[in-house]
Amino acid sequence: MNLIYKFKKLINNRILRTPGVTFLKKTSSLKKKKQHINFWINRAKSNENFNNFFFQSAELDKASTIRFSSNKNFLVGEEIFSSLANNGLIIIENALPSCEVEKIISYLNDLKNIKKKFNWLANISSSTRNNETLLNLGIPDIKNFPILKNYSDQFTKKIYGKIVLPSVQFHHLKLLNYIEKDKIRGETYLHSDRFLPHFKIFYTPFNIGVGDAPLKFCLGSHKINEKYLAFFENAVHFDETDIDCKKIMENKKIEIVTTLPNTLYLCFTNGIHSRSSFLNPNSERYMVFLQYVEGFNKLDYLLN
Ligand SMILES: [Fe+2]
Question: In the chain, how many domains are there?
Fold first, then answer.
């Protein structure tokens, strides 16, 4: 199981991964950058489902709330998809039934203490950055969490036009008595992950307060239009320090996603986002990430 998993991961990362900003960063010719962006954006446009979420202008009268509560069958209704298309971010509170919340908490505790009581798809990895943070990362099988998988299936069917299996990561992150003073590129600077339609689903069984590095998202910044494309053609850092990024964010609201326990949120991370800084030197954060950049890759764009 582990070997097959590692092999698939390798092929996905080396060959099939959906283009990010690496090519744009290493290419100086504006003409080549435009060709590259246009080619992939045209491929994206041929997916009808992307049209509503990424290419149609936001309808501001339908962009009211982004916070919802789960319904009794854990189904995602049209008002949630409509808000997502307009805002690029939605939050579902009370997202999972208590038995599944408890199961996720058990897995996260197993990860924190590296007890390996559960069957993880790859070895739990533990890494530190400059002795400032300690991150334990585990990859469970999504089948163990049927309602979470059901949310993932509903969102991928609507956004990609087919069910796409997520890459699932459970994180336990701990600050080692460290105060985040400087901003970090790709993390605490507002930035975009890639120019193509892109999203992540986050789930937390616990509160995320303002000091716990909540996600920030510039509502509506995921819409692919002329301003958006100019940003990717001209950007140096692909973040808020680029002038064209400021133009995308003009007159838009930055939402800070603090949460109650048992909250799921989905963010279009081709839009402008960051995490906030941790404000407590001994902060701990437990988080579940669902990502689709491997499940929906270059082949899905090219063969569409
Ligand atoms: Fe990001």
Answer: 1
- Count of CA atoms in the C-beta half-sphere (13 A) of 60: 3
Neighbours of 67 (CB within 10 A): 16
Mean pLDDT across the stretch 257-262?
Answer: 97
Instruction: Say if residues 269 and 193 touch (Cβ distance below 8 Å).
Output: yes
State the CATH number of the domain containing residue 23. 2.60.120.620
- Ligand 1 centre and the CA of 117: distance in Å? 31
pLDDT (tens digit per residue) in 124-180: 999 998 888 999 999 999 999 999 999 999 999 999 999 999 999 999 999 999 888
For residue 268, give both structure tokens: 């279009």
User: For residue 187, how far is its CA from the centre of ligand 1 (angstroms)?
Assistant: 6
53: DSSP letter = I
Q: Whole-angstrom Cα distance, residue 151 to residue 163?
A: 11
Helix (H, G, I), strand (E, B) or coil at 86: helix
Looking at the predicted structure, is the pLDDT value of residue 58 above 70?
A: yes
Instruction: Report pTM.
Output: 0.93
Cα 162 to ligand 1 centroid, rounded to whole Å: 24
Gap from CA of 250 to ligand 1 centroid (Å): 20
Domain with 284, as residue range(s), is 2-302
